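Troubleshooting: if your tokenizer reports a length mismatch, compare your output against this known-good record of 528 residues.
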Amino acid sequence: MAIPLSAASGHLATPTVDQLAWQQMEFGMFVHIGPATWQNREYNNLSTPLGKIDPDIDTDNWAQCAVNLGASYIVFVAKHAGGFCWWQTKTTSYSVAHIPWDNGHGDVLRNLRKSCDKFGLKLGVYLSPSDKYHGAGLGGICKTPAKQKAYNALYREQLTEVLSRYGTMVEVWFDGSIVVPVADILARYAPHAAVFQGPEATIRWVGNENGFAPYPSWNALPEAEASTGVATSRFSTPHGNVWMPIEADVSIRRPDWYWSTTNLKDLMTLEQLLEVYYRSVGRGVQLLLNVPPNTTGHMATEDFARAKEFGDEIRRRFGKSVAETSGAGRKVTLHFPELQRVDHVILQEDCRFGQRVLNYRVEGFFDGEWHSLAEGKSIGFKRIQPLSPATVHALRLTVTSELEKPRILRFAAFNTHAVPPKGWNAPSHVWAPTPAGYWRGSKFDVDLSKQMTRAAQYLVHFVPQKGRVKAIRNVKILFGGESEPKMVQSIPGSPGALLIDVTGINHKIVLKGSTEGASRGTVLVQKL
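Known-good structure output:
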């Protein structure tokens, strides 16, 4: 599970065989169901008696939903932060073995593995290191060494059960990173899985829960950022020496991950889902779209129908090209046997050799000359590029700047007769900064909970009343009273700002430290 470094300084970062296989799946379906589903809330408060959790779980229904979407795999939340386990575990009584369903013999992971095999899907698992039932905070951090030792043993046994009993996992989620040592378990039971967060991470979070990736989008980043275990898309660079592809997660009932009786109004429209697709898969980033079952254990009728509507439209638009080609070098031309209307192209680099294209132009040949139809920057694993619709004899991809000789795996033309979704080419949104508090006498102790209400990345600006902030020292970020040093970073060239990753909202968030230079001012928080 070692981080794949480029062969030598100055060489492009390239993916491992396993990373490339993961990227080729492109699109997965997340599944969240748990006691929170019965509580009409996002985080399990441990209030629901297990006897009240009595679904009739139908994993074939889930798998059919994933197929309808066009997803290649399912990532199932086998344990969320509340600690409830959906498989037959020996580690805790807070599990599926103690609910009425199937007389206590039910096992969702067992059933889901069978359904995935039946429907031709891969399976991944989310196993929260945070566990409210057993007193483990973000990352699996416990309050005393004795409790940490006990929880480490419990979590390691849970992970071993999940990875050893249910076949090959294509992805393993350690949401919020992880302090429990698990490298040996991963190496033994899931050596080829994509790992989300933690010291063994091979993939990274996009940095928001909107499903939107930045553009341009680069698969590489510096080793120093990759090694944190909580890297996001923010520090991506074509010059990075570590290949660590990005995953964008979002819920079909945005922003809620769990079904509730009140969030049907938040079910995304087809247009919104298309925007997510263009701004994730269309930017070379993996999409993980959550569809949450309801208290019956089935996908809600409305969600199931919307998922199919979305998948059908993606297949209609991009299921078959009118023509395609490949090639190497700065120009690749696609000829048509007769005049052809086009309105989109899909571009892909052969990423076995790294991500090489920095800028490109797509042109169409008609009226006896070449006309520019679109321009872009990164291509990487995949780029969905809408064009100014035209009827052409040929298309030409011209790479106007690159790191090394371009290798174009796919240059495919489409005639979708559809306009791209509104906002398809929008940059990553940045919210206006809001005040969170003040600092006086150089030291600060600021509660950021009201500003940091969603999983995302946040910039914290220290705006001095006079003078300037030369540096921020002794920084400590506390989630639920526990220090999480990896979740806060300084920003090169910005001595008065910090970057904070928030991967969950069920914790009080407090920032402490001191400033050098200005001794008083306002603390502003800006969501990225």
